[in-house]
Each structure stands twice: as structure tokens, then as C-alpha cells.
Amino acid sequence: MAKMYGDLAMFSGRSNRPLAEAVCKQLRVPLEEAEIFDFPNENIFIQLKCSVRGQDVFFIQGLSSPVNRNIVEMLIFIDALKRASAGRITAVIPFYAYGRSDKKDQPRIPITARLLADLVGVAGAHRYMTIDLHAGQIQGFFGIPGDEFSAFPILSDYLVGKNIPDAVVVSADLGFAKKARNYARRLDLPLAFVEKRRIGNDPKAQALTVIGDVQDKNAILVDDEVDTAGTLTEAVHLLKRSGAKHVYTACTHATLSHPAVERLRDAPIEEFICTDTVPIPPEKRLPNFTILSVAPLLAETIARTHEGRSVGEYLKDA
User: Fold this and answer.
1) What is the distance between the alpha carbons of residues 104 and 96, in angstroms, rounded to a whole number?
2) CB of 19 closer than 8 Å to CB of 277
């Protein structure tokens, strides 16, 4: 098969270099170097340390904390690749920020998820890749082609291997119900829901009640993202009050903004399971944390995209 683009070249910003290194290890290719630093006035300087002319470039940059710095760094890096005449630029965004700003649900507010998607294309990216967007319609915000992958196979395979007895899958909220059903089907378990309500712009939603039977069962509480962990830990306490024996939690993105770690430390969680789409520094890792890597998923999809092979076939079998 004739190549449409040049050789594969991998780059990373500063947001999640360990994940980028793990992806490159899977691909058996080097992580190319670039000089990145902040001037005293907070302006970001980027210089590529190798030629990318005509190459098929994949740039990995998650948009976790510091969110706005990482966004601007991503845009500047893409612009540098474009001006260095890269053949194709794919922005690999393991965690997509502003995912909750996907609609106008209050007067006179922006749709920031759409704005960010526009910026990725305007900066010069030809394609995008991301994992578990907060809302599926965000795919339609991009004016460039791309792929959204799910960490569901990684998390569900791990849970299948644990073979938790007397278990029930619990959706952290009704908005996650469809994805929670996938967990229940994969694990062949019953399903329950936590009903919660968010008041205004308060980042902490109030968990109200459990819909379903969790009495004397081991609950597997699933969600897409854990930020301050207020909603999650309140749901954990609610499940315990409702008769659950043990509570396991599973999510894709553990952004763990303050005071998430303190809340998770004090909550009766048997095991906190997440992925490495967001880097978790050692000081935030508790003894009950299990961090699963999305590097094999990204490496395989990057290889297939570069070689012009079907990504859908791989995801179907994953």
C-alpha cells in the first residue's frame, strides 16, 4: 500500500509526557524533541528540534491542569508543526477540557467546547483523536475529521478480571446511564442509578437517591470524569447508607482538582480505578488507586491511522 504521508513522527507537549512516552514505547518509535519554555511574561516558546517536512505527525497533549496554559501550548505547537511543513498533523487529546460547556443551558453563555474545537482546526491540525468526551455531540463541533475512542474496554476488562461477587453496576448519574448499561451488559450484572441534581453553577451536584437495589451488594460506581470528587464521594456515602457492602469506583478521567484527594481519602471506597489520560502525581495517589494505561489503545489507533488501515475494525474487536 502506497503511503499518503511521510514517516511517522511523535511529539508531546508538557501536559502528559509519561503517556506520550508509553505510547512511543508501544509503537517502538522515538518521541521527538522540542524545546518548550515559558518567558517571564508567561508567553510560551516552542521550537522543534528536528525536521517534520512532509511527515505524518501525531502530537499528544491532554488538556488537564493547568488547563488554559495547556490549551495555548497545544495551539502554538500545532502552528509550529504547520509552519515547519508537516505533511499531516493529528492532535491527540486524551482529555478534552471544557467538555461540560457543550450547550447554551443558561442565558448569555458561550459554548466553549465548540470554540476549542474550532481553535484546533484553525491552528492547523488536520485530524484529532480523543478519549471519552463528556458529551458525544462534541464530535460534531470539529470541522476536521477525527476519532473518539473509549476507555470502556480497558476498564471493563479489568473489572471482569476482578470477578467481584454479588455486584451491581451503578451509574453515577442518569446522564451516564447509557454507558453504564454497557458496563452492566459486559459484566452481566444488574444496573442501578444515582439520581443527582446540580444547582446553578455549583460544581458539586447533590446526590439524592438510589434507583435500584444495592442492599447487601458490592457496588461498582461508574462515571466518565472525577474532578473535585464531591459528587462521587456523596454517591459513595449514599450507596453505603442504602446497604451496599463495598463500593468500587471506575472512571476514565481522574482530574482530581482540590479537594478531591482529601475527599477520596475519607470516603469508604474499596478501590478507585481510573486511566492515565490525566497524569496523577505521586502525592495524589492513594493506596486504593489503580491506574490503567490507555497507551496500548492510542498506539494501535495511531499505527492504523498512519498506515491507512481501519480503526473501526480494531475498536469493534477491542
Assistant:
1) 19
2) yes
Question: Which residue in 49, 196, 284, 316 is the catalytic one?
Answer: 196
Summarised one tens digit per residue, pLDDT across range 129-181 is 999 999 989 999 999 999 999 999 999 999 999 999 999 999 988 888 999 99
Closest C-alpha to 90, from 45, 66, 120, 119: 120
User: What would the pLDDT profile of 185-235 be if each residue is shown by its tens digit?
Assistant: 999 999 999 987 666 666 555 657 999 999 999 999 999 999 999 989 999
CB 205 within 8 A of CB 198: yes
Cα separation, 280 vs 287, in Å, equals: 13
Regarding beta strands 218-226 and 247-254, do their DSSP bridges make them parallel or antiparallel, or are they unpaired?
A: parallel
For the cut 90, the answer to whether the pLDDT of residue 270 exceeds it is yes
In terms of pTM, does the model score above 0.90? yes
| pLDDT tens digits, 275-296 | 999 999 999 999 999 999 999 9
Task: Give catalytic status of residue 196 as yes or no.
Answer: yes
For 173, the enclosing helix (H) or strand (E) is none
Pick the CATH number of 8-150+295-317 from 3.10.310.10, 3.40.1360.10, 3.40.50.300, 3.40.50.2020: 3.40.50.2020
Distance CA 138, CA 121 (A): 14
Alpha-carbon distance 57 to 12, whole Å?
A: 11
Cell of 218: 458490592
